[in-house]
Amino acid sequence: MKRLHVSLAYRTSDFGRPNDPDAGVTLPVKALDADGTVLDEGSASSLQPANLDVPADTGMAYVRLTWPSGRTETQRADLSNTNEAWVTFSDAAISQNEWAAWAVPKLNPQTPLARSESPADRRMDEFNNVWLRLWRFQDSVWKREKLRPIDQRRSNVATQMDLELGHAHWLLQVGGSKVTWRFVAVPGGGRARVLITPKDSKDPRADELKVVVTSFRERAETLLEFLSRDAMRSVSTLTESVSFARHLLSEKFEDPVAAVAGAYYLLRFNRWDSVPLSWFENLSTNFAWIPDTAIVHCARLLRSGSEAHSKRFSPEALLQQALSRGWPVYAEGVSLLQEAASLLKSNSAVDASYIRRIEALGSATAWAGAATSFYGRAPDAPDALHWVGRPQAPRRHKIIRELVKARSSGQVGLSIAQTPHVIRGGATDTPAPRPRGPLLQAAGGRIVKGVALGEDDEFLIGNIARLSSL
Amino acid sequence: MTLLLNTAAAGQPGTHVLAIGVGKYPHLLDGDKKLAKDPIGLGQLDSPPVSLKAFLDWMLAPAGDGTGFSNPAVPLASVEAVCSSKAPVTIDTPALGQVALEPATRDNIQVAFEAWLDRMKSHADNLGVFYFCGHGVMVADQHLLAEDFGRTAQPWAHAFNISLTIRAVEREVSGAVFFFIDSCRNVPRGLALTLGADPQALIGADLKKNVSCQHVTAVYATGEGQLAFAPIGGHVSRFTSALLRAVSGYCGIKSPGEPTWNVDGDSVAAAIRTLLQYNEPGKDRQVSDQSIQGPLVPLLRIGAPPKVMVRLDLAPKERRSLYELYLAKGANRVAQTLVDQEFKVDLPRGVYEVGALDPHGALPLIRHEDEDLVPPIYMLTLKSQP
Amino acid sequence: MPIVFVHGVNNRDGDAYRENEQARDGFLKEIVAPALGMKPGKLQVLSPYWGQHGVQFAWGMAVLPNQSAEFEAFGKDAEAEARGRVAGLLAESHADGKIVDMARKDFRTAIDLLYASAMAGAETEEEARDLAKSYELAVSYAETSPQPDWLADAEPGNFADRLNHAARASDVESFGAGGILDSLKEGVSRLLNAAPDATAGVAGRLLRKKLNATITRFAGDAFVYLGNRGTSDNPGPIVGTVLADLRKASAISKAEGEPLVVIAHSFGGEIVYDILTYFDPGIAIDCLITVGSQVGLFEEMKLYKVSSPALPPNPPVGRVVRPASLKRWLNVFDTNDVLSYQLEPVVEGVSDFHYDTGYSSFAAHGGYFMRPSFYKRMAKRLAQG
Asked: Rounded to whole angstroms, how far apart are CA atoms C162 and C166?
């Protein structure tokens, strides 16, 4: 046997979880021969190289690293005259800005963030009117919170901010005159980083802005990024290591969000009975501030047939519990909700309104990799209709007709702003085109249909300080 | 139901196929019977019978270079098909000669499905393949339309919920099942209102049972809310073309310790998606979608390495005819010399040196070492500067 | 490629049938622009809104004789507005909502009404453009098959399906139905639902009120405009608003080397004429289309800045010369529209286009842009040169 040591010279953030023994970036690597046959695979991290064993007669070997986005990097390793070789993958050239490099592996390979030359036509300048809002789910109501970044970065092609978020369920909302209103889930319970960059293709259907989120849980997030793209092989490789199981599936739940990632892995790979049922029960009971804990518990029960259902825990009750805690933090949770809704639809123990909410979420789903993301005007109402404009003046941008239920004069939409119908002026986005219905009031604390209205200031992306030299 | 093959051996695992193609819808637009009250804009289709025949012909061909179902560990054991089309479809079978397919009415589909499911249950390691080509609509779940859709005032009595069927099958069998669904997933608005009773699944999900199925891969021809397409005039659909191309040797991974190149859910879904992207002719984009559950199980085990469709180009175009474009691996080298067009060639999977050289030596050499040619397609545009 | 659309009296809050601007822009781009040699995708429609500087009614037109809350009966959201438009359409075309019966008698008119109804609810320009494309296909189909067999047993529930299916020209087969059918089926349903309102006289009363309000507002706008017109050094607010967009469009047109087209409805025509003759004669316009306008009338009344009492020297002989900066001028009027006037008797070098809708005079003034057939006829007329 010959051995290949593959290491990852990727910057580790300073903000990894304190109790995460594998705080470094971890990615799957494979050793191939010249015919493309896989000789061995493993996961390499910035703290621990992968040791791949290849047959003794291997001459030239090729080591391939795979990013969640699907992009790969290949390096050769000549083992013709030796039994050991070292290969290092570095992130030095990944992105123009060091602070943005972490997001590149999660974005489409054509992302402007990865290109070394400044793209002429896609600049963050044109997104000066894009606004951001932060929402927190508390006491069954979505409440606006002031966006207070503890660190900010900006370049021609990206804007990034770090937030300190408490133990609750958080949504970041982004919108603009040409940017469809969208919500992206941000994990709470610590520091989180959000990066926003223009889209990487000319496809008019793609979202104008891409949003990438991290809560510095490297292994768990990389696993979920691969899972959201159905890259089963890569997920398998990452989860083979012993330390993975030890950390993500630990009984002590040192990091419940990472435990949720572990649960998603188990459910997807049909390994849900490799941990005791009590593990799921403890997760959903003790960490109610994460909606996903109830979702994975519900899915676990549905998978194993009704013998496992007890009076205390039933899938119907857990489904309703999950929805009353907010939306899933991770997109995998949305699929599980849809599965549960489909199976429990005809079950009278579940209120039809929950099923409808799940179906609405399903039809409004947007893409943000592993993070849950959906279109809509309000955080409690995902909507397949696309809206653009300033927060006080949303207007319909595009309708995915195929997914919209009929409008009728009798049906009123949300009780928040009515549709201002006519757009005045030329190409610019002039404010307040005389809506006909009740306006969104800026008064503090008034609750309108499940949404508490806070202060009316938005965080304009254009206001983030630009770095002088890049 | 029409059985085209039945060589299941007791006590041995086998692959059981159920294939459905619906192109003739008598109660939809341009049909020859009474038009449904609300045909939701759907009419007759020319492609599904052709696509189904291509799929079945590939399945039943002897396993060889690029055709035929190849999985020595779990060989083809049964093939069942129903088809609705203007002109009856006959399939050439190895054992039963020419067989004419019965129509894909809701009842026939139900009978065929139940027989397929029974066969699937006969061994814990059986593989199942379910193929459908025809009209489909989506309301939360995906529904597929049988030939007699619209016959009665209850049109949905002649359709079935495939999403729920898949979830039900997960609790009925223990092997691995692959679903290939070639239909649209859009939601006609009128449907959302009139959908009183949900169309039934082919079998109800028994929530008392465990999910026992080892692995399920479902590949959909298109994304949620989107349409699936075929060239006009009775040709194989885009999705089925991509599927057949992928499994005809343009897909496969050889893992450590495995003697064969295996095609599993992960690789076949990725290959189909790539092929669809490459073949898209402009406005009507079609992006396939997939759902993969459970550890990977090989669908096909192939002896020879997969092939890669190579598309090598050079920019700027004015210089193309001044170069020799080449790919080389070890002693093997293929090239296109001094021709003003894209270099198209099929090569076995592997790591190659790819480049362009000027036979007259004037222009600079362009060389990319260690290019990993991954099936199904490898595309590169070499840049000659300045 | 810029088109400037200068509105008239119809685009105000409280107006019963505010036009669907998305639909209008979509149809302009898809149907009219090609007749002018412009590509739909490259078109940019600028719509300067001068309405806020127009007449304001301190008591909200309380002095109108016919007060009623009929519009509110339709509701308050977008679909309600669409229903209101369709009710008006039906009333003014003396039709009931029975689309299939109408199709059997006059297929072409039924198609026009169906698409007008679908257009009334178009929410985005993309949707309107798709509708416009579909409309053209349907019209071609009707020309080759004025009485297709399937009409005999068609029902409202499948009329749109059958029409869409028969008329479509697709180069791919799709395993499902496309999106435009939904818009058409909504169109059918609006016609069916609006019919009771139309026949019960609700729409009729609304139309009468609308005519009164229109004429009242028109007079008011004229007074306000004449009073606050301003001078070329100091243009008034209405002129200023329109002038800004005209200049912007002119700059775009020069930069791209593309023609500049201006479409002016009703009083908008007078504003544009004043600008072209007095406020900024330097703006070069390739084609001006005035629709339901009163430009000739105001010249007869000598109300423009440049109106000369010396013209005509020998009434009625002698005419005003078309402004030099304007290459071509088409004036569209409908004899049923009490607020539309001819132009040729007063200005030379222009073409009058008589568009006889046969509509009720109550509604004709606003109806031009709600009818797909209007765009087609305008396009045909423009293509003739």
From this structure: 6
The answer to whether residue A470 is domain-embedded is: no
Do A223 and A325 have their domain in common?
yes
Beta bridge partners of A143: A136, A452
- The string of pLDDT tens digits covering residues C101-144 is 889 988 988 999 899 999 888 877 888 888 898 899 899 999 99
From the CA atom positions of chain A, what is the Rg in Å? 23
Are A78 and A141 found together in one domain? no
| Closest residue on chain C to A435 (Cα) | C13
Between CA A56 and CA A30 the distance in angstroms is 17
Chain A interface includes C248 (CB < 8 A): yes
C2-53+229-383 — its CATH code? Answer: 3.40.50.1820
Minimum CA–CA partner of C13 in chain A = A434
B 274-303 residues with CB < 8 A to C: 284
- Domain locations in chain B as residue ranges: 2-302, 307-383
Mutate to test the interface with B, among A38, A66, A76, A230 (most CBs of B within 10 A): A230
Best mutation site among C175, C185, C193 for testing chain B: the one with the most B CBs within 10 Å? C175
Structure confidence at residue A440 (pLDDT)? 30
CA distance C183 to chain A (A): 8
A30: CATH: 2.60.40.10
Q: For residue C38, count CB atoms less than 10 angstroms from its CB and return exposed for 0-12, middle for 13-18, buried for 19 or more.
A: buried
A249 and A332 housed in the same domain:
yes
Interhelix angle A331-344/A291-303, nearest 10 degrees: 50
Contact C245/A at CB under 8 A: yes
Category of C251 on φ-ψ map: left (φ > 0), alpha (ψ -120 to 50) or beta = alpha
CATH code reported for the domain at B307-383: 2.60.40
Residues 365-384 of chain A with CB under 8 A from chain B are 365, 384
What is the percent of chain B with per-residue pLDDT over 90, rounded to a whole number?
Answer: 65
Q: Is the pLDDT of residue A438 over 60?
A: no
User: Would you state the pLDDT for residue C19?
Assistant: 65
pLDDT category of residue C289 using cuts at 50, 70 and 90? very high
Summarised one tens digit per residue, pLDDT across range B285-325 is 788 999 999 999 999 999 999 999 999 999 888 888 889 99
How long is chain C? 385
Per the CB < 8 Å rule, is A421 touching C18?
yes
- From A407's Cα to the closest Cα of chain C, the distance in A is 7
Q: Which residue has the higher pLDDT, B179 or C198?
A: B179
What would the pLDDT profile of A72-98 be if each residue is shown by its tens digit?
889 999 999 999 999 999 887 777 778
The total of structural domains in chain A comes to: 3
Residue of A396, A401, A422 lying closest to C182 (CB–CB): A401
3-state helix, strand, coil split of chain C in percent (to 5) is: 55, 10, 35
Token pair listed for C365: 């003034």
What was the ipTM of the complex prediction? 0.89
B2-302 CATH: 3.40.50.1460
Range of the domain at A266: 219-348
Is the pTM value of this prediction over 0.95?
no
The CA distance from B221 to the nearest CA of chain C, in Å, is 10
Give Cβ neighbours of residue C87 (< 8 Å, ≥ 6 apart). Answer: C74, C194, C197, C198, C202, C203, C206
Return the residue in B20, B27, B29, B237 with the most chain C beta carbons within 10 A, the one to mutate for interface testing.
B29
Residues A238, A333 share a domain: yes
Q: Could you tell me the two tokens for B97?
A: 């000669």
Q: Where are the alpha helices (DSSP H) in A98-251?
A: 218-228, 232-239, 242-248
Residue A209 and residue A228 share a domain = no
In a domain, A440, yes or no: yes
On whether residue A34 sits in a domain, the answer given is yes
Residue C182 pLDDT level (bands cut at 50, 70, 90): confident
